[in-house]
C-alpha cells in the first residue's frame, strides 16, 4: 500500500509541469485568434494599451473552458508516453501494479481539471463576456467617431453604408453626409445632408445619427418607384456590426452566454415559448456541465493512448491525441449547429461527445490493460516506426 501511494504521488507530480506548459501554450494560441479583432480596435478606434490588455484578460475565462480539458488530456498523454517509452509501465506491471492501479492519481488530476473548468464555465465565462460588453460600450461612448473615416465608405453599421466628407472631432460634427439604408427589405433609402452629429444614448445603449436640412430618396423594390422627401431633422439609429462582432447581445439584455447557471435555469423555467433563444439557453445550460466533464473523458482516453503507443515516437502520440481532441470538438460543434432544432435535443448534442469519446477511451483502456493491440495495422506501423528509430 505504501509503494502504491509513493507511485501515485510520483505520477501526479509528473503530470503537473506538462499541464502548466500546455495551459500557457494553448491560451497563447487562443489569444492569437483575437489579434485581428484587437488590431482593428487599436488601428481604427484608438484603443489604449491598458484597455487592450484588459480586454485580452477578459477573454481568458472563455478560452480556459476549452484550454483546461485540452491541457489535462495532453499532460496525461505526455506522462504516460514517457512512462511507456522508458519502460516504466513494464517495470510496474512486473511489480504487480496494473494499468488500473495507476488510475487513482489520474482521476484526482482530472477532478481538479473538472473543478477548474466548471468554475470558469459557470462563473468565469459569464463574467468575462459581460465585462467585455461593458468595456466595449465604454470605448464606444468615449469615441463618438467610432468606425468613421473621412472620405471613405464606412460599413461598420449593420445594413447601413455611411460616407462622411469631414469629421470635426472637437464639436462632434459631421459634414457632407451620405447614408445608404438597406434595413428594409422592400425599400432602399439614400439620405444626403450637409451636416449631422453622431452621439450615444446611454439609456438605450445605441448610437444615433442626427442629420439636418437634408433629403431622403426612397426606392421601392416592389413598385420600382422613387419618392423624395426633404427634412429639417432626421434621426437614424445605428447598430454596430463589425466593430464589436465578437460581442453578442445588445444593450442591457443578457444573452445566454452572459447568464449564470441559476439565471439560465430561471429563464428556462419561465420561458413561455420554445423559440431559438430558449434552445440556445438550453444548450448553454448543458454545455456548462458537459465540457468540464470532458476532463475525465479525455483523461481516460489519454491514459489508454499513452500506454498503447509505447513503441511510437512521442510526436506521433501527441498528434494522435490532438486528432482525438479535434474529433471531440467536431462532435460538440455538430451539437451547436443543430441547437435550434427540436428533433436534435440539446441534451444529446452536448453530451454525445462525452459519451462517444468516453466509450472509445474505456474500450482502449480495457484492451490496453489486457495487453492487446487495438488495431493490427496500427501495431504494424508502430513496429516499423520503432525499427526506423533504432
Any overview of this molecule?
This protein has helices at 2-32, 35-45, 49-85, 88-94, 103-142, 261-270, 276-308, 314-337, 346-369, 376-389, and strands spanning 153-157, 160-168, 173-181, 187-201, 206-220, 225-238. The chain is an alpha+beta fold and 390 residues long. It has two domains: 2-140 and 260-389, no CATH class; 153-238, no CATH class. Mean pLDDT is 80; it is low at 241-252.
In short:
Helix content is 59%, strand content 17%.
Features:
390 residues, alpha+beta, 2 domains, 6-stranded antiparallel β-sheet, 10 helices, 17% strand
Task: Outline the fold blueprint.
Elements: H1 2-32, H2 35-45, H3 49-85, H4 88-94, H5 103-142, E1 153-157, E2 160-168, E3 173-181, E4 187-201, E5 206-220, E6 225-238, H6 261-270, H7 276-308, H8 314-337, H9 346-369, H10 376-389
Antiparallel strand pairs: 1-2, 2-3, 3-4, 4-5, 5-6
> Quick one: biggest sheet?
6 strands, antiparallel
Alpha-beta content class: alpha+beta
Our count of domains comes out at: 2
The chain-level mean pLDDT equals: 80
Number of helices: 10
Summarize the helix and strand pattern as letters: HHHHHEEEEEEHHHHH
**How much helicity do the residues have?**
55-70%
Rounded to an integer in angstroms, the radius of gyration calculated over CA atoms is: 28 Å
Spatial gap, N to C terminus: 38 Å
Low-confidence runs (pLDDT<50, min 5 residues)?
241-252
Percent range for β-strand residues: 15-25%
Please provide the count of β strands: 6
Q: If strands are numbered along the chain, what order do they take across the biggest sheet? A: 1-2-3-4-5-6
The rough form would be described as elongated
